[in-house]
Amino acid sequence: MSINPHATVLVTIFLLLAASCRSAAAFSLFLDDPCTVTDFPALCRGTIKGLKNVNAATDVAIAELMKRTRQARDIAKKELKVVDGGVSTCLSNFNSAFDNLDKALKSIKEGDRFSLNINLSAALTDYDTCSETMKGARGDNVIYKSAGVLYKMADNCLALSTLVN
Description:
Butyryl-CoA Dehydrogenase, subunit A, domain 3; 165 residues; elongated
């Protein structure tokens, strides 16, 4: 049995058209709300406060993440004076994440999507490592909770970065 080459071409064209129509619909949805691509859209919306420009929204989301990382780093410094129990690892990771986020902001301005994604992924790993380190800590662990929120914010930033032009 032979395959009709014209039928193959028609099927391919149909599939490409269907995919492009879906992409166009999805793209228009992103224009209205870039947070639709994130895993934590409510957190995203609270962070970007209605921005529709993806580059600006990603920039604002990263800047807010840097602010909260600085706050978590300050808490970790105070906590380290009392007890270590993994806090030193988190402090180091918060410093590393902050540096990665600073590089990510520069990458947006330079239009370097590859470096943007690399640096956001690195920050995401930093927060995850802190969370894993503090997971077994007893009591109401502020650092563990902070690392969890920072992880979600970084995950949102990474998702937003996929839309950056």
